[in-house]
Structures are given as structure tokens and as C-alpha cells.
Amino acid sequence: MFLLRKISHKPRNSQPILTVAARLFTSPVNSIPDEPTSAHYDLLVNAAGESRDFDNLHHLLTKRVKDHCFNTVNTFKFITNSEGSLSLLPKLSQTLARLPKGFTRKSAYDALISRLCKLGRVEEALRVVELMAREDYGLNACSFHAILNLLTKKQRNMAEARRVVELMRKSGAPPDLTSYNYLLMGYCFSGDLAQAAGILSAMEEGLRVDARTYDALVLAACNAGKLDGAMVLLRRMADDGVPVLLSTHVYVVNSLLSRGFYEQAVKFVRGFSGKDTWLDTEAFGRLAVKLIKLERFGEAKEVLDEMRKRGLVIVDQLKDYESKITNKKY
């Protein structure tokens, strides 16, 4: 419970209890505390937006940046898919245009784009992009990330995603590594390896691949049944010092298990362990759950024993599964 959380002691900022109490009981609910947070500002911004108080909204968006409380995915949560809410976009855009130029204004527009993408409103998000480009509001590749994420991951509209990338180039915001990774993952997920190869060729022009790039390539290899190729990519990641993501582990493990290579899946997870405790806990734990569901109790017990040997946390859900195999014969 909130009231029972441990309260940190800050002697340098200590004040008489009567002063603190007076402030607590007299401060209005919508006031800005001495040590504000992004979450607190989000609440105030959304309250101002819901009440159509755009002057206060302008003030809050300006002050939060001065207080180093930057915009988040919740900043414009008062914008919803309702017709009445969407009708506020022109007035909101005018308000953002009056913000101090530079990071304050640019980050606010970026946050609005992210909110619109959260709602699945690609067309409206692109209108904001066009405004930023036309008025020189700091449009760059980061402004497009939420749009590409929506198109390539949720809507799986790769044709529209390619059109957005062309718009990036025309707008003077050429795609960066993250932008290309969205496209690459989209094509790898759908199995369109020819298009994926084209993206890789474009990335070779001055961009250095990262864990997300490898993640997409390993997925493509696993989906194509080329486990040897996936292992080559993983070894290359190790050689290049690129960390292996949990999702990359999952692709390989799922591919091995689907082909009946149970012991190899255990050896794979064990072979790539020892560098990150959280990753080890997740990788071993997920493997154990999958093995139990497949009724591969012997391998599951081996994984659980390995977790205890390494001192990894076994979550309650996994303990419940473990109880089911205690008396099983395997």
C-alpha cells in the first residue's frame, strides 16, 4: 500500500512538521510540487486538456521542460478516438506552435504523434509531421518512429511504411538505424526475405547494426527453418560484442522445440547464459514452462535444477508448474 511504503530520509531538505502539514493541507490539488515528476505533469496536462484550458496547457508544457520533466506517452492522454476529442487537434496544434522553439516545441509535437499512433491514427499523425516539416519545428527521424512502429508491427502495412520512409527523405529527415530496424523486422516477420535483403543493403551505407537488427535476422532465419544460419548470426553477435535480446533467445528456443530438439534447446540456453542475471532468469524460466507444457518433464527438471544451481529466482507460476512434475515419471 502507498501509505506503508518506506519513506526516504532527506535531512538536508527537512522542514518543521507544522510547515510541511500546512503546505499539505493548503496546497491546491492542481499545484506543482517542489520536486515535480513527469507523471505529475502528465496529470496536470491532461486535466488542462480535458477542461479545454489551452493557456494553462501551454504553461505546463513549457514549465515541465524547464523542470526537466520531459513528455511521456501519457502526456496527451486526453486525446482519444472520440469525435469530440479529435476535434481538439487544430487548437492543440496551435497551442504547441506557441511553445518556445527548440526542444520544448519539438518534443511536444513528437509526443502528440506518439499519442495519435497509440490510437491508430496514422493520417492525423502524418499531418503533424507535415506541419513540423513546413514550419521547421525540428522534424527528424525520431519524429517518425511511432508511425513506423504502428505500420510495421501492429498494422503490418509495409507498403505504407515504405511510403513513410520516402516521406522522411523528402522532408529532410532521412531514416536512421531505428527506422530501418522497424522495416527490417516487418519484412522478416512476414518472411519477405527479398525485401529484407534490400533493407540490409540500404543499411550498409554508413549505419552500424545493433541488437534489434540481429534480432530481426535471427527471426527470419528461424522462420525459414535455417537454424544453422541463426547460430551463425548469434556467434557473430558475440564476436561483435552485441548483446542478445530475450526475444532473440525466444525465437531460437521456439524453433528448436517445434522441431523436437528438446535437449538442444536446453544446451542453447545454457550456452548463452552467465552474462546477465535477468536474461538468464527469463530465458531458463520460459524454457522450463514450455518444456512442462510439452510434457518434457525430464528436461524441465534439468532446467529447474540449473536455475537453483545458479541462484536464479523461480517465480510462483513456475513453482506451480514444478509441483505438477514432482511425481511424474520420465
Summarize the structure.
With 330 residues, this protein is mainly α. The protein has helices spanning 17-26, 38-50, 54-66, 83-86, 89-97, 103-118, 122-135, 145-154, 158-170, 177-190, 193-203, 211-223, 227-240, 246-258, 262-271, 277-293, 297-310, 316-325.
Structural class: mainly alpha
Task: Note the beta-strand portion.
Answer: under 5%
Compute the number of helices. 18
- Rg is 25 Å
Compute the number of strand runs.
0
Q: Major sheet, described briefly?
A: none
Helix and strand run: HHHHHHHHHHHHHHHHHH
Shape: globular
In words, what does this structure look like?
With 330 residues, this protein is mostly helical. The protein contains 18 helices and no strands.
Fold topology:
Blueprint: H1 17-26, H2 38-50, H3 54-66, H4 83-86, H5 89-97, H6 103-118, H7 122-135, H8 145-154, H9 158-170, H10 177-190, H11 193-203, H12 211-223, H13 227-240, H14 246-258, H15 262-271, H16 277-293, H17 297-310, H18 316-325
Helix pairs in contact: 2-3, 3-5, 6-7, 6-8, 8-9, 8-10, 9-10, 10-11, 10-12, 12-13, 12-14, 14-15, 14-16, 15-16, 16-17, 16-18
Keywords:
single chain; 330 residues; mainly alpha; 18 helices
